[in-house]
Amino acid sequence: MVEIELRFQVPEHQHARLRRRVAQGAGPAQVLQAVYFDTADGRLAAAGLSLRLRREGRRWLQTVKGPADGAFGRIEHEVPVAGSGRSPPRLRLDRHDGSPAAPLLREALGDAAGLQPVFQTEVQRTRRLLRHGGTLVELSLDEGWLRAGQRAEPLFELELEWREGPLAGLFALARRWLEPQGPWLEVRSKSARGAALAAGGSVPLPPWLRPALAADTGADAALRAMVAAALAFTLPAASAVAAGGRDPPALHQLRVGLRRLRTALRLFGDASPAVDAAWAPALAAVFDALGAARDRDALAESLVPALQAAGAALALLPPAPDTGDAPVQVLRQAEVGRLWLALADFAGGAPAAHDPPLAKRLPELLARLHRQLARDARRFAEADDEQRHRTRRRVKRLRYAIDFVAALHPGKAVRRYLKRLQAAQEALGRYNDLCVAQQAFRALADTDPRAWFAAGWLQARRDVQVAQAAAALRRLARARVFWPPARPG
Asked: Could you report the per-residue pLDDT of 431-442, keeping only the tens digit for each?
């Protein structure tokens, strides 16, 4: 079966209030103790799988979970296991034979050595059932600990698991619980967090996976698949940033994911009457609020070492404005949580009855985006910074559009075109980093003359980078396109 659930973290100051609210109509709390297993080299975690033995009252259950479509679905196969007492019974993989999880286990484990306990969870779970129209949802509040050796991490999670009925009811109930309590969406599973705790690292971020579109996929259905793919890429990064602490890779992936979502809505949003016009500006606001922190991460990684190598007397970035934990606070806002839920609800919804194929509209769309960049290539050397920044946004928009629809075109031709498009994107990205850094050092030069060396060095690099970006754009303009000619009319 496929388990579909929404999980939320809750700010500490709301714990007592949430306990009281969940207790209304709930059954008695239950103590759950689970042991999670993996190989010494973490093969199950790397494949997105979890394997556990969990004690619920007097009974034991062996469960395997694995990836499914979307950000909120997980394949689950659970088997009762004979056992008594607190010691876990013997783990046996053949208990899952014949289930959808069995081939996933075999592929992940291969010829690996035996499985071993990696971490454990100890939680007190309070459950109650909720209904919304014809939808039945089990709400659970879990309080306890993740433990891996000497490491421990507290757990306080609210979960809403879909049981039956229209899936839209799950999101409607989640919005109802989201608003008064102030929790934020958490898509990282306990198993992923426990594996990271055991390894002393962070939860791995998922790679980008293109939506599986076919030639006859309708435009509305395709847009929903694009949003689902973008959410699966974006939300784990959003959860990592919202959890607090410095996590530059997660912040970068979150910003890329937001761009993907905005591109899907901008280019294909007119295909669905269910698209809310408020989503695009809301995504833009989140993106802009995260920009300053991500820009500094990029500059510290790329330009500071180069300035130091050039002998700059002042090679450190100017002090950043004190924005505190702005990215964390932005992502914990109830409005952002409602935005994620609305997009997820849309992604899982049914497309319009009359849904013409997306493939019919692609040649004209892709050709228009390519022509825009060809014009920009001719004017790039003489353009001002604002115009060059617009070109950079257009390159990214075309790149993400192709990532969405690549399955509809010959792979070799797509890769050949993307190679030139990516080269242009990287050249424009380097130019943008130089502009941002130069602006910062020029502002600092009024109070610290040492900053003038850095500003001058950056200007010289800018001049070189303009020529490189212009050349990359010209090569892109001459690239052989992979889409068929647009049909007249």
From this structure: 988 888 888 778
Confirm if 211 and 228 have CB atoms less than 8 A apart: yes
SS3 79: strand
Please give the DSSP secondary-structure letter assigned to residue 94. Answer: G
Tokens of 279: 């989503």
Contact status, residue 218 vs residue 355, Cβ threshold 8 Å:
yes
Q: How far apart are CA 65 and CA 57, in angstroms?
A: 21
User: What does the H/E/C string look like for 224-245?
Assistant: HHHHHHHHHHHHHHHHHHHCCC
- Phi–psi pair at 477, nearest 5 degrees: -60, -30
Give, to the nearest 10 degrees, the angle between helix 219-242 and helix 385-405. Answer: 110
Q: What are phi and psi of 352, to 5 degrees?
A: -60, 150
Q: Could you read off the pLDDT of 255-292 as tens digits, one per residue?
A: 999 999 999 999 999 999 999 999 999 999 999 888 76
Q: Per residue in 60-102, pLDDT tens?
A: 999 999 887 766 888 899 999 987 777 888 999 999 999 999 9
Q: How many CB atoms lie within 10 A of CB 86?
A: 7
26: CB partners within 8 A, 6+ apart: 126, 127, 128
CA–CA separation, 364 and 401 (whole Å)? 13
Cβ(283)–Cβ(257) under 8 Å? no
Q: What is the pTM of this model?
A: 0.90
Q: pLDDT averaged over the chain? A: 89
**Which candidate, 362, 303, 326, places its Cα nearest to that of 242?**
326
Residue 458 CA to residue 418 CA, distance in Å, equals 29
How many degrees, rounded to 5, is the angle at CA 315 between CA 312 and CA 317?
A: 150
Helix, strand or coil for residue 323?
Answer: coil
